[in-house]
Amino acid sequence: MTNLPNLLTLIRIFLVPLLVAALVQQNFRVHWGDTVLLGNDFFALTVFIAAALTDLLDGYLARRWKQVTTVGTLLDPVADKLLISAALISLVEIRLLPGWMVILIISREFAVSGLRSIASAEGYPIKAGELGKSKMLFQVMGVTLVMLSVRWPSIRPWALASMWGVVIFGLASAVDYFRKFWRKVDTSIKLRRRRELIQMERQKHRLQRAARDRDLVAQSGIPPIRRSG
After folding, report:
1. Nearest CA to 81 among 106, 99, 98?
2. Distance CA 81, CA 86 (A)
3. Nearest residue to 92 via CA among 163, 153, 36
4. Predicted TM-score of the model (pTM)
5. What does the domain layout of the chain look like in residue ranges?
6. Which residues lie closer than 8 Å to 33 by C-beta, 6 or more apart?
7. Residue 20, phi-psi category: left (phi > 0), alpha (psi -120 to 50), beta (remainder)
8. Distance (Å, whole) CA 223 – CA 216
9. pLDDT (tens digit, 9 = 90+) per residue, 135-153?
10. Distance of alpha carbon 159 from alpha carbon 141, whole angstroms
11. pLDDT tens across 82-108, in order?
C-alpha cells in the first residue's frame, strides 16, 4: 500500500510534464475579463516550487513516521532528477539558459548516479555527503531565479550567477563522490589482493611441506604408505 511520502514522490513525478508544458507554451494565460491573472511564467514557477516542496516534505514525513521504504528510496532521487532535468531543458528551449551549462549539470547527475549504483552493487554504498544533500536546494534556488527573470529581466544577471554557483557546487560534490568511491574501491582492491597473497603463500607452504616429506621418505628408503581406497 502506498504511504503518504511515496504518494508525494509520485505527485512530483506527475508534475514534471505539467511543468514542461507551462514553460514551453509561452502563450498560456489565465484571464479575468481583460486582466491577466496568471501567465505561463508564474504558473510554471508555482508548479516547480510545489514539486520541490514535495521533495522536502516526503523525506521529512518518511523519517518522522518511520515509513522509509525501498520503493521510496529508489523513486525519490529519480523524481528529483526528472524535475530538475525537465526544468533545465525547458529553460534552454526558451533561451534562458545556455545549453552547455545544462548538459554539464545533467551529466553530473547521471555520472554520480552511475557511480553510486556501481558502488552499491559492489557492496559498499556511498551515502550522500553534506555537499550532495545541499545540491538540490541550490538547484531549486537557481532555477527559481531564472524563472523569475522571465517577468523581471533585471534579475537575469543574478539568475545566471546563481546557475554558475549550481555548476561549481555540483562539480565539487561530484569530486567528493568520486573521492569516496576511489577510496572504497582502493581499500577493497587492497584487501582482495592481500587475501590472494595469503592464499598463495599458504599453497606454497603446503607444496614445500609435501616436497620435504617426499625427500625424507626417499632418504629413509621406507616405501610410502599407500592408503586403500
Report:
1. 106
2. 8
3. 163
4. 0.74
5. 1-95
6. none
7. alpha
8. 11
9. 888 899 999 999 999 888 9
10. 9
11. 999 999 999 999 899 999 999 999 998
